[in-house]
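Hi P.,

Sorry for the delay on this. The queue was packed all week, but I finally got your sequence through. Input first:
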Amino acid sequence: MSRIVKTGNGWRLGWDAAASEFKGLVGGENWAIELTEEEWNDFRRLNEQLHEAMRQIAQELMDEEQISCELESDRIWLEAEGFPNAYSLRLIVQTGRKAEGYWENALELREAMSTIEGF
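Then the structure:
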């Protein structure tokens, strides 16, 4: 099956391998953005790198400290903000049509991304 759509609390993810241009979909409760395969791959990679950075920084923080961390490629900008075990994620698509998105619970979104196979 080439089309996958997953939803959860405050997030939506989709992948359509047969689509000609926009194969990926990311969204929240009331919004969605289609992504090219390159944008999708950058989003996945940067999301994982941010998660790892938050995990590593956590070792240096006191329990009540929050952090903000951002990464970007030519196509995608991401920012994680909050506690290492409960942070939000902001997305800006920097190419073509330009778009912006936000998830309150980035960890659930990250876990769901890892279940979409074929990458």
